Amino acid sequence: MSEIIAHHVKDKQKIEIYDPTSGSGSLLINIGNSVAKHVDNQDHIKYFAQELKANTYNLTRMNLIMRGIKPNNIVTRNGDTLEDDWPYFDENDPQGYNPLYVDAVVSNPPYSQQWDPEHKESDPRYARFGLAPKTKADYAFLLHDLYHLKPDGMMTIVLPHGVLFRGGEEGTIRKQLIENNHIDTIIGLPSNIFFGTGIPTCVLVLRQKRDNTDVLVVDASKHYLKVGKNNKLQASDIKRITDAVVHRESNRASNAKFSRLVSKKTLRENGYNLNIPRYVDSAAAAESWDLHATMLGGIPVSEIKQLTHYWQAFPELSKALFTHKSSHYAQLAIAASDVKHSITQHGEVKTFAQSYANAFNDFDSYLKAEQKKTGTFDAESYPAKIIQVDALITQEKALKKAIKANAEALHLKTKATIENLSDQQVNALLELKWITPLLDELSQLPSNLIQQLTRQVQTLADKYATTYADVANEIKNTEQTLAGLVDELTGNEFDMQGLAEFKTFLQGE
Questions:
Q1: Which of 100, 44, 95, 51 is CA-nearest to residue 73?
Q2: Using alpha carbons only, what angle is made at residue 27 by residues 62 and 77, rounded to the nearest 5 degrees?
Q3: How many structural domains compose the chain?
Q4: pTM > 0.70: yes or no
């Protein structure tokens, strides 16, 4: 989302970004970082955020300020996005009408939550498209975001897949969005990539005005890295998605496994259903078996042609491996057991391997030279810390490997030593490990009992060492001493009256 938005607004001098369900503000921060790469001054980026929960709203403001964003570039509001739209009137200027329109809107709202659509038919956010059903506010959030875009703005929103195909009121809204040319891109994401939900989600990219009438459909659900119980998009996965969106004209192949441009005509024919598998088949192709070749032998030429990218690099290798029986079938020109030898020893393959080796010859020297060019980093700098962390990780791996190897060696040595003990050594070991400790424990029992008895008797003696009469006498003596000290104190009239009353209390009069 960040990279897509950043590419769209990269030519603007001043940029305004809005997140109506800001949470901790992470989306705004990520997009701000991506946009900052394309602007001369980060202070030209202004952030608008709205959040329902007061604690989280404060977290948004704190996170933005901690990232070095100036307070006058931060406008945050604690409010219900659907019930209480961004104020049209400045609270400090009740006469000033100031609707909010921005260059980019980003949001990851709560999925399919209930809301109250009553009396909102004339709300300008929803009037053009209709109201989302009471039980699912997904399209209410989407239409809110779309409303706050400038004519050349772009929005991205994360929603559950149901918004792509559910009928009823949502189907009507979806039809209007397609017919009015607002939906630009749909990106299917893997499941388990967001904290708190395991359901697969999608990113919808919408614009107020655009020249294209088609919709780009991207299925990125198979491209991720498994990290524990969660899935994570790698940098390469994110770049692949971004490239598909930025270079959308390269997605016109109808049999693409990752992305495809779908015409408005095709969407109409499919009843405005945007379910991703209808347009992009990302499933791995099932292996096919040629019946003729299975029954009569041979290799289908069509399956040999599936390796065309190899034959383009090694045009003579194909001729060395196969002979054609007909235009449709071929057979191996060598014994099946010689396939590996024939490929690795073929002239074109050996030439390729040598060329590759030559290309990277002395590459280590090049890297070392580049490292010297870069020079040293300041010890407190980010690159220096990364290098230190990498060195520590490498050292940790080496130490763990050494510990494991030493533990295994110790285990084997211990096992071999025990197995080779003589009867005399076994008896000595039993005496050392069993008989001697047992005798030591037995010899300590009497002294342990005596020590325990001593502690208990001492506790009993201390318990009754001081009588109540002793305590009473000590209190009386202390009070008399304190009463005598009171006579030495001085003060004003009221202080002396208080001290006199206190002395009377001490003396028990």
A1: 44
A2: 50
A3: 3
A4: no
* Region of 119 on the Ramachandran plot (φ > 0 left; ψ -120 to 50 alpha; else beta): left
Q: Is 206 exposed, middle or buried (0-12, 13-18, 19+ CB in 10 A)?
A: buried
Q: Which two tokens stand for residue 74?
A: 């931060």
Contact partners, residue 254, CB within 8 Å, separation at least 6? 260
Helix (H) or strand (E) holding 187: strand 183-188
Instruction: Please give the sequence-ordered ranges of beta strands (E in DSSP) within 116-162, or none if there are none.
Output: 149-160
**Cα maximum dimension of the chain:** 131
Question: CA torsion sign, 266 to 270 to 276 to 277?
Answer: negative
Per-residue pLDDT tens digits for 87-97: 655 555 555 55
The domain that holds 84 is classified in CATH as: 3.40.50.150
The first and second tokens of residue 396, run together, are 């940790």
CA angle 42, 44, 45 (to 5 degrees): 75
Domain span at 320: 293-355
Residues 53 and 154 in one domain: yes
333-354 pLDDT per residue, tens: 888 888 888 898 999 888 988 9
Cβ-contact 75, 46 below 8 angstroms: yes
Q: Is 299 found in the same domain as 200?
A: no
